Amino acid sequence: MRILGIDPGIATVGLGFIEVHDRDRFQSIEWATITTKPNQPLSIRLRELCDDLHQFLTDLKPEVAVMERLFFAKNRTSAMNVAQARGAIITVLEQHGIPLLEPSPLELKLSITSDGKADKRQMQDMVVRTLKLSEIPSPDDAVDALAMALYGAFHKETTNANFQMTNKR
């Protein structure tokens, strides 16, 4: 199974792509970021994000995507921009026929570290250990996206059920 993890944003979108070979064998294939220029109008930034994601999906052909459900407690403007970026991402995924899993932050942390209150460093360390990487991927958006992809790998049954439900529409 080929899984794409996505860490959404308007300035930077993290992408982490893994392959699941069997029950406990995962391979990191690629991680990357899509960046947009802050001085551009939002509409142009969203179009660039969609164009770049479309190309990434066309090249790597993931079977499922995982993107954390939106959760913000602070900056309302930032939350609005990320929400709009998420909408653009979801639209591109739908155009490619790629089902989406959306764990909450708590579900993600529990799945990766077994601790729902894990901090960023604990998450990064578990991603490195699980994928047998030599160092923490950079930037943070990329390692966050790899954590999303691992969530999909750990929840293959949910992923497969979600995929079958999506294909029945």
Short descriptors:
disordered C terminus, Nucleotidyltransferase, domain 5, 169 residues, alpha/beta
Give a description of the structure.
This protein is of the alpha/beta class and 169 residues long. The protein has one domain: Ribonuclease H-like superfamily/Ribonuclease H (Nucleotidyltransferase, domain 5, 2-Layer Sandwich), CATH 3.30.420.10. The protein contains six helices and five strands, in the order βββαβαβαααα. The longest helix has 20 residues, at 76-95. The relative contact order is 0.21.
Which helices and strands occur, and which strands form pairs?
Elements: E1 2-7, E2 12-22, E3 25-35, H1 42-60, E4 64-67, H2 76-95, E5 100-101, H3 105-113, H4 120-131, H5 140-154, H6 156-167
Parallel strand pairs: 1-4, 4-5
Antiparallel strand pairs: 1-2, 2-3
Helix pairs in contact: 1-2
Assembly state here? single chain
What is the CATH topology descriptor? Answer: Nucleotidyltransferase, domain 5
* Radius of gyration, whole Å: 15 Å
Instruction: Please count the beta strands (DSSP E, at least 2 residues each).
Output: 5
Strand order of the largest sheet: 3-2-1-4-5
Strand residue content? 15-25%
Order of helices and strands: EEEHEHEHHHH
Q: Could you name the CATH class?
A: Alpha Beta
Q: Unreliable segments (pLDDT under 50, ≥5 consecutive)?
A: 163-169
> Shape, please?
globular
Q: For the record, what is the CATH homologous superfamily label?
A: Ribonuclease H-like superfamily/Ribonuclease H
Whole-number average pLDDT? 89
**How does the helix and strand content classify structurally?**
alpha/beta
Question: Any guess at the CATH architecture?
Answer: 2-Layer Sandwich
Helix content: 40-55%
Count of domains: 1
Give the end-to-end Cα distance, rounded to a whole number of Å: 21 Å
Query: Helix segment count?
Result: 6
Largest sheet: 5 strands, mixed
